Amino acid sequence: TGSPSIRNFSIIAHVDHGKSTLADRILEHLGAMGERDKRDQTLDTLELERERGITIKSTPIRLKYVREGGEEYIFNLIDTPGHVDFNYEVSRSLAACEGVLLLVDASQGVEAQTIVNAYLAIDNDLEIVPVVNKIDLPAADPEGAAQELEEVIGIPAEDAVFASGKTGVGVPDILEAIVEKIPAPSGDPAAPLKALIFDSFYDAYQGVILFVRVLEGTLSPKDQIHLMNAGKNFDVDKVGTFSPGLVVGDTLPAGAVGWVAAGIKDIQDAQVGDTLTGKERRTEEPFPGFKPAQPVVFSGLYPTDTEDYRKLREALEKLKLNDAAFNFEPETSEALGFGFRCGFLGLLHAEIIQERLEREYDLDLIATAPAVVYRVTLTNGEVFETQNPAEFPTRDRIELVEEPYIKLSVMVPEDYVGPIMGLLQERRGSMQTMNYIGKRVELVYEVPFAEILYDFHDRLKSISRGYASMDYEQIGYREGDLRKVDIMVNGDVIDALAVIVHESKSYSLGRKIVDKMAEVIPRQMFPVPVQATIGGKIIARATVKAYRKDVLAKCYGGDITRKKKLLEKQKKGRARMKQFGTVEVPQEAFLAVLSTE
Ligand code: GTP
């Protein structure tokens, strides 16, 4: 059994190694150009994704390939997100495939994401077709890049296909390699149904649309289905394929990639990675590796204008309809009033949601510093998890605190190894391995997740002049000596400014925060003290000096544009301020904890 004429595959690559460009070239070659644009429209790809040049989600695409001699093949090209926040989605999309094209930029060689992605493919037992891309570049070294693939990942260099998504050279070879090297899907269409959910989105009319890969059996309209991890049953309305956009079809047999609408109202009921089977005729085991979507980064979101609370809640509810990985619950802060504690997959995910709230729902928000989830054991033996500094117990009640760790992989030219190791040390990292790959080095470290959350990537890039790359995965919890630092403005503790930090950094961080706050809080008619405390003990102090003269007085002379700029800047700043008694604190202050400058 099986479907000898189907090939299900994905393209994986380090960011900017040319995945989208090559995919377009393949589409064009198979007479589907323009389809990509249509596809973007059908699924309403976020404007934000385009601006940031990253792909978060897009539908698979079904293509027909006719070989010389007339043999016909169906290619299902399944896209994968391009950011580490969404690595679980990447792994599920790969699980829906039999093979991947592993792209490497011929002028850059293997980068951190190349390695991590290749291992995701290997873990899913996929056939890897190595493609050295951008060979048209003057700086291209295709043989060198192929050699690196062999050294690092163990793919024979002579297997690499040399190509350019820009000129189209090598594309016919890639299409042939897909047919020759990537196995056809196996699976018995008469067996009990077993299908893997690898993506989903919410449609206002049809409910949640699931993207599935049928592994065994056949999925048809009117089937009664059972979701194995959710433990829920649904009736299938429609099934279909991607052509692109959603095209209604008759059935999806084993081997097929397609979509299902089954009147599912709540996206939490049909999570990525879950297995679909028949309600009556069940498959024995669910597809392995299911993980419920679990936020790992939390931040408080508060409307600048308290009147907007209801509007914010409605907007959050709408966003959640389409995003099983996002959650929120009401939270009250003495300082900020009513808001929501929100959970995200990572900082990029958090930024995207925040930007959408501001742009699409026209909300003005204050966001508190992002925090990871800590596991606290109290002296009375009780264990609980918290990501909210406001809930962090005092030291005398704590037996032990654990924090999440990641395994971080960094690729860096050998000239920068020293400074990068210094950076990793400063971030409390411990080295696991160090591999030389030509003139570059792969460093593998275990690092507390909190330490790389905010500006680590920027620091890495600036220290290495843009040459270093990184990727990581969560590896569980380790003990850490963590403290809560409180911030007081004008004698009042501002709960929303509290942060949890490692003991070794608490003093320097306290210093940094108060200095930054003193800088960004506008001057008042009186001096305002800003203090950092641990357990009530003051560890740092700064003062916002009293207001003296108009800022515009500095721009003597007729420099109108500069005055205008200054006024605009002030206006912008004001829009995001919160009043605390007599003192206004701008949004910047809430992120002061994170900035390194
Ligand atoms: P993400 O979607 O962010 O992961 O990026 P990507 O891997 O899809 O890269 P994309 O296709 O957007 O290409 C990145 C940059 O490289 C763009 O500026 C492209 O124009 C350029 N580029 C892509 N392919 C080629 C190629 O074959 N040759 C040359 N010279 N440039 C290319």
TrEMBL record:
**Molecular functions per Gene Ontology:** GTP binding; GTPase activity; ribosome binding; translation elongation factor activity
Residues that bind GTP, according to the entry? 16-21, 133-136
What are the record keywords, sorted? Answer: Cell membrane, Elongation factor, GTP-binding, Hydrolase, Membrane, Nucleotide-binding, Protein biosynthesis
Tell me the Pfam families matching this sequence.
Answer: EFG_C, EFG_III, GTP_EFTU, GTP_EFTU_D2, LepA_C
Spell out the subcellular localization from the entry: Cell membrane
Domain of life of the native organism: Bacteria
Q: Which GO terms describe its biological process?
A: positive regulation of translation
**InterPro entries reported for this sequence:** EF-4, EFG_II, EFG_III/V, EFG_V-like, EFTu-like_2, G_TR_CS, LepA_C_sf, LepA_CTD
Similarity-based family? Belongs to the TRAFAC class translation factor GTPase superfamily. Classic translation factor GTPase family. LepA subfamily.
From the Swiss-Prot or TrEMBL record, give the protein name.
Elongation factor 4
Q: What is the protein's species of origin?
A: Deinococcus radiophilus
